[in-house]
Amino acid sequence: MTYLKLAWRNIWRNRRRTLITISAIVFAVLAAIVMQSMNRGSYEVMIDRMVNFNTGHLQIQDYRYDGEASLDNAFHYDETLRGRILNADPRITRVVPRVETFMLAANDVSTRGAAVFGVDPEKEQAFNQIGNYLADGRFPEAGEQTAVMGKGLADRLQLGVGDTLALIGQGRFGMSASGLFEIAGIIDHPIRDMNNSAVYLPIQAAQELLSAEDHITGLLISVQQERHTGAVAASVRNELEAEELVIFTWPELMPELLELMEMDLAMPRLLTLVLYVVIGFGFFGTVLTMTMERLREFGVLLSVGMKRISLSFVVFIETLIISAMAVAFGITLSWVLLKLIDPISLSGDAAQAVIDMGFEPIIPMSFAPDQFFIQGFYVFLIAMAVFLFPLVKILKLNILEAARS
Asked: CA 169 to CA 174: how far, in whole Å?
């Protein structure tokens, strides 16, 4: 306790120098967190959409489907299988069946390639609120022989609500698959590629069209927290180990997206590193000046019997207190600032460019806890590195020379 009081008094003997040092570290923490939050926020939204509309946190497939994405490799699905999966782990929140295939979508004069999804309307709405993206019409109910199209695909085929959509393709085991469906709704899909190609059918209608009664190509699973994905996958694998089914996590299903994210985040990480190197040298300069100014003080303390290790410990506490105060204030200020600016709305050409890429014209902020607390760790490492200088100086200090200076 005595060392702590001594360190606290030493820190505030020169208030200006201490405040300048704290301000520099606060700026570094603030800049690093905001930079990471802006980048990670955009990718979190992208991943969330891909998970909700494409892969799920987990996805169950026939073991042959990954090598050959064909309806021939669909698997049987019923309420018994659904119950087994839900009971495999209490962290599973939803189980959503889908039939997915590629077909030709046509009007009376032209055709376009389409990704056809057979979905359970009620479960799909609970899973990703897809009905909230309707631009016109409604989402069909279970058992209807109607379809919902992505707005981009509907525009290209010049079709609207109430028109008839023709689907032409191949069902299971080479069976011919073709049918006419009234368009019940047009969806402005949040994923650009799917907006230009997606057709949604009630799952019973899709299974009948594709000669795939009681079969699905994928079973999407959502979990309470994304961090539970790996543990839940292990539980489901144990439950289905005797089945010809495999369980994939969303990172396994989207490796290209994760690689792209890592590449794109490399530059912000490099800038953060440069920022901390600059701040580290600034911090070192302050500690260097403080140490040289206090050599006489150190010499007097050592000459009256204070041990070198005790003096080193006091200086260590001083460095730690400055770092802790700066990091705590920097994290708090960052969180408040992010709350105030989240999300950043774009306008003009920048907004149009983002809309053209299929995204909302906003920059969302990430509030992932690790990006806040990791800054404390980085600053602690800097503080430890900077502390080496006064430590070495104290251990090698000549008491007589220091006392005379």
From this structure: 10
Dihedral of the alpha carbons of 29, 34, 36, 39, in degrees to the nearest 10: -170
**Would you say residue 102 lies in a domain?**
yes
Last residue within a domain, chosen from 223, 242, 274: 223
pLDDT in tens, 33-52: 887 787 777 777 777 777 87
Task: Please give the Cα distance from 391 to 291 (Å, whole number).
Answer: 10
Model pLDDT for residues 263-305, shown as the tens digit of each residue: 777 777 787 788 778 777 877 777 777 777 777 777 777 777 7
* In a shared domain, residues 267 and 393: yes
pLDDT value of residue 168 = 92
Cβ burial, residue 26 (10 Å; 0-12/13-18/19+): buried
Q: What is the pTM of this model?
A: 0.70
Q: Are residues 266 and 370 in the same domain?
A: yes
Higher pLDDT, 359 or 62: 62
- Return the CATH number at 182: 2.40.70
Tokens representing 52?
Answer: 């909700």
Q: What is the per-residue pLDDT for 360?
A: 64
Q: b/e string for 236-251 if b means 16 or more Cβ within 10 A?
A: beebbeeeebbbbbbe
Q: How far is CA 58 from the centre of its chain?
A: 16
Best CA proximity match to 395, nearest among 323, 310, 321, 332:
310
Q: 231 in a domain, yes or no?
A: no
**Which residue range forms the structural domain that includes residue 126?**
97-223
- Angle made by CA atoms 140, 80, 65, in degrees to the nearest 5: 70
Q: How far is CA 385 from the centre of its chain?
A: 32
Query: Which residue(s) pair with 273 in the sheet?
Result: none
Q: Which residues are CB-neighbours of 202 under 8 A, at least 6 positions away? A: 118, 119, 120, 121, 140, 141, 142, 143, 144, 145, 146
Residue 273 and residue 393 in one domain = yes
Find the mean pLDDT for residues 186-206: 89
Q: Where are the beta strands (DSSP E) in 267-346?
A: 344-345
- For residues 286 and 395, state if they share a domain: yes
